[in-house]
Write a structure and sequence with these properties.
Length: 506
């Protein structure tokens, strides 16, 4: 972040005069200097400040709506008791600015330095701080809800009291106080982050490892039956991939409807923020996206309202966004247009350990009419052998890509033969090598069963139908996407033998 460039900037333009009740609406201010003015109860709507210097201004009780600040400095200004909405600040320095008892809603701060700014008694909602340096943050007696902190360095900050549904993505912390109770209302923190912070338990210093901290607050959540917050704690775990935690938390949240609990808009907004964050990091695989859609769709099909007012509209919006992303993902799959054999082939799958999921069920999800499965142990690995029809192969490969745990590469022997104009019918065997990716997600079984989902909007292309048909058959087999991914993640190679004699030699 080039925060120093704004701090060292030279401001030489004469400024327009400011006074109480001023109105600078739809003004474009470039290079102006404002120092020492009293301009309380003023209106700034759709005003742009470019390379401006604002110092020691009294702007309390003012309205700032949809303003844009670029490469500007705001220092020692009083913006207390202001209504500040949808402003954008980029490459700016904000130093010793008082936002006390103000409302900040829908604001974005990009590559900014915020030093010694105060937010006591303020309401901060739906704001984003991206690539920022925040040195000093205290929201005492105020509230902070549904804010995003992305790639930011946070120092000398306090997160306590009402600081709920915050997303922290790749942030660093120093000299920061964090209340343990808020861990279940946060996403994106890591155990390393917890080591960087001073943790509090009910206002008192907590001395212990991150694991002990998580266990301590989990016990409190259990006592208070805060099941959703317990699920959110799983984001701190390295044993379960975050998209599975998302889906499981979504199940818990919507299942509460059956007990007469109405889903709150803040919950839906938090799920939307987490979904955006996971997708931005390519950490949401297609299978879990499908299951999350199915979970929401199940409750849409119920007769009663699942949420009140704004919450229900936001849930529909989340559903539509997820559906479009899944449609885009299916359309972007790398299809293997292999010249498939005209008769059944032998399949051998080698696993690093015995899979908990019946791999034959996955095969049946791709095609009908397969022979029984044989699973045995050989040379320390688990080997599965079966006979599969030709039209099963594309579905198996598509589901593997949807699992998002690895990348596929056709075996070199098969590739050379195919490039030479051969077909699988004339090739002794071909293999699909499963390579681990650096961002491999370790999946666990036990996710909720896959309910129905009307996916007709997704069925745009014939190849997309291949995936959707496989997903529907997965449901018939009683498979959850997490169990399918777990099975694939343990698989090392899939080898298809078209020549039975060659297969027997193996």
């Amino acid at each position: 972040m080039e925060s120093s460039s704004a701090a060292d900037m030279q401001f030489s333009h004469e400024r327009p005069s400011l006074a109480p009740h001023s109105c600078l609406t739809f003004r474009s201010l470039d290079g102006y200097v404002f120092h020492g003015d009293i301009a309380n109860n003023s209106l700034f709507a759709n005003t742009s400040f470019t390379k401006c210097d604002l110092g020691s201004l009294n702007l309390n009780h003012s309205d700032l709506q949809s303003c844009v600040f670029t490469e500007s400095r705001i220092a020692f200004c009083d913006l207390s008791k202001c209504d500040i909405r949808t402003i954008v600040a980029e490459n700016c320095v904000l130093e010793s600015v008082s936002f006390d008892e103000s409302v900040l809603c829908g604001c974005e701060f990009r590559s900014c330095l915020l030093r010694n700014c105060t937010f006591k008694g303020s309401t901060i909602e739906h704001c984003a701080f991206e690539n920022c340096e925040i040195d000093g943050y205290d929201n005492e007696h105020g509230s902070a809800i549904l804010n995003n902190f992305i790639e930011s360095d946070i120092r000398n900050a306090e997160f306590r009291n009402v600081s709920y549904y915050q997303v922290f993505q790749n942030c660093s912390f120093s000299s920061t106080v964090f209340e343990l109770y808020l861990l279940g209302f946060s996403y994106g923190l890591s155990k390393a982050n917890l080591n960087e912070m001073t943790l509090l338990r009910m206002g008192k210093a907590f001395y212990g490892s991150p694991e002990q901290a998580i266990a301590a607050i989990s016990e409190i959540y259990h006592e208070r039956q805060m099941w959703l917050n317990i699920e959110f704690l799983a984001f701190l775990s390295q044993n379960t991939s975050p998209d599975e935690v998302f889906c499981r938390s979504l199940c818990v949240s919507l299942a509460s409807i059956d007990h007469g609990i109405v889903v709150q808009a803040e919950h839906v907004g938090f799920f939307s923020s987490i979904f955006d964050s996971l997708c931005g990091q390519n950490a949401f695989c297609g299978l879990m996206m499908w299951q999350s859609l199915c979970v929401i769709d199940t409750y849409f099909n119920k007769q009663h309202h699942i949420a009140a007012g704004k919450a229900e509209m936001e849930l529909h919006a989340l559903f539509n966004i997820m559906r479009q992303r899944l449609s885009d993902l299916i359309a972007s799959l790398e299809w293997y247009d292999l010249p498939l054999p005209k008769r059944q082939v032998r399949l051998e799958a080698k696993f690093e350990s015995k899979p908990s999921c019946d791999f034959m069920s996955i095969i049946r999800a791709c095609s009908d009419g397969v022979d029984p499965l044989y699973l045995n142990e050989r040379e320390g690995s688990w080997i599965m052998t079966s006979v599969v029809p030709p039209d099963c192969i594309p579905g198996l490969l598509a589901l593997a890509q949807m699992a998002g745990c690895f990348v596929l590469q056709i075996g070199e022997f098969a590739k050379e033969a195919l490039d030479a104009g051969g077909s699988i019918a004339t090739i002794a065997s071909f293999a699909v090598m499963i390579k681990r990716s650096s961002s491999e997600h370790r999946a666990t079984s036990g996710a909720a069963p896959l309910p129905n989902l009307v996916g007709r909007e997704l069925q745009t292309y014939e190849k997309q139908k291949t995936v959707l048909t496989s997903l529907a058959k997965m449901q018939e087999e009683g498979l959850s996407p997490s169990s399918v991914r777990e099975c694939y993640s343990k698989c090392e190679t899939l080898t298809f033998f078209d020549d039975y004699e060659e297969y027997l030699k193996r």
